[in-house]
Write a structure and sequence with these properties.
Layout lengths: L6 E7 L3 E8 L4 E9 L6 H19 L6 E8 L3 E2 L2 E2 L14 H9 L3 E5 H11 L8 E6 L3 E6 L47 H12 L8 H4 L4 H13 L3 H25 L3 E4 L9 H15 L17 E4 L6 H14 L1
Parallel strand pairs: 1-4, 4-7, 8-10, 10-11
Antiparallel strand pairs: 1-2, 2-3, 5-6, 8-9
Helix pairs in contact: 3-9, 4-6, 4-7, 6-7, 7-8
């Protein structure tokens, strides 16, 4: 293939894998997406070695020398500010307080931009919608609840300290059966992530299976640990199982309720829902539940224009980037910043 002068890499650091993508100076993908094992639990130096391996494999897949990579976008699964990790999250202790961006840039001799994984995925979804010119609010239910806001033109909004859009930790007024607010992994109570996440799914499933109404349910009779049962819940929901439907309906409506407040603040025009639910066969029903929750909290004008009832003021779409969205977002960010 004909080579262009400069290439730009996107590196998405996850808990189990590092996903990476390369684009050329025309903004077109080059080679293939490369995945290598993540070693975040072994410390940042070990992870740097994996990131270099990913860069080498990216270059080989595109048929270029690694020196042709002139800029890197890097995302990490933790809060960070100006290249420095502020919170441990799922990383080893030695990540915290380190200037990861500049250390990695010095190691590979290439300028590096760094942000969190929610911001990266938001930019990736924006980059894949080349006809979209407005803002984009992205939320992704997963192990937790991440998100990001991309402003018109494709620039992610990070806030003064790079800590904006921690969407999972806004409060919602929903209580457990005993009237208590659920505890969130962040240490607070009542966060939306305490309802909309894989961790929350396990808690809700445990509570429901303890009820007499589900005594004969296959998941009650299943001897597997609650973590395995929670992973099976999507398959049950896909087949219309009443227990799974009840749990996901509650989750979707609470997410919609929280999105109403986010839309009221940012008025993005487009809300993109990511995470594993984007790939499920029952996602259309899940989106209906989101919209029901949204409508209980949002003013009507945040759904339809009072001047034209056919005009949507807030559109909702499923993510289209899949597992590659964050890496693609970082590659495009590097392309924008360093070309």
């Amino acid at each position: 293939m004909a080579q262009t002068e400069s290439y730009f890499a996107g590196l998405d650091v996850g808990g189990t894998t590092v996903k990476s993508i390369l684009i050329d100076d025309r903004g077109e993908t080059a080679g293939r997406m490369v995945e290598v094992r993540s070693r975040v639990k072994d410390g940042y130096e070990a992870t740097f070695g994996q990131l270099e391996q990913a860069l080498t494999e990216l270059a080989a897949s595109a048929g270029i020398e690694r020196t042709a990579i002139r800029g890197i976008g890097l995302d990490v699964p933790a809060p960070s500010s100006d290249g420095v990790i502020w919170g441990r999250a799922n990383l080893a202790d030695d990540w915290v307080g380190r200037d990861i961006r500049d250390r990695f840039s010095a190691r590979v001799g290439v300028p590096v931009y760094m942000t969190n994984d929610g911001n990266a995925a938001a930019v990736g979804e924006y980059a894949m919608r080349r006809k979209h010119i407005g803002s984009l609010l992205f939320v992704a239910p997963g192990t937790g609840l991440g998100g990001g806001l991309v402003l018109p033109g494709g620039r992610v909004y990070e806030g003064a300290n790079g800590l904006a859009l921690e969407v999972g930790h806004i409060s919602v007024p929903f209580t457990e059966d005993d009237g208590e607010l659920p505890e969130c992994s962040c240490g607070l109570k009542g966060c939306v992530e305490a309802w909309v996440s894989l961790v929350a799914l396990r808690r809700r499933l445990r509570f429901e299976l303890a009820k007499e109404a589900w005594a004969e349910h296959p998941l009650t009779l299943d001897p597997a640990p609650i973590e395995e049962k929670a992973f099976k819940l999507r398959d049950f929901a896909a087949s219309g199982d009443p227990l799974a439907t009840k749990i996901f309906e509650q989750q979707g409506m609470i997410l919609g309720y929280a999105l109403a407040d986010l839309v009221r603040v940012f008025d993005p025009g487009l809300v993109v829902i990511g995470g594993g639910l984007a790939e499920t066969t029952f996602r259309d029903r899940y989106l209906e539940w989101i919209l029901e929750g949204f409508d209980t909290r949002a003013w009507p004008m945040y759904r339809r224009s009072p001047l034209d009832a056919d005009k949507e003021t807030t559109r909702f779409e499923w993510a289209i980037g899949g597992d590659s969205a964050a890496a693609l977002g970082m590659a495009f960010t590097a392309w924008e910043m360093f070309r």
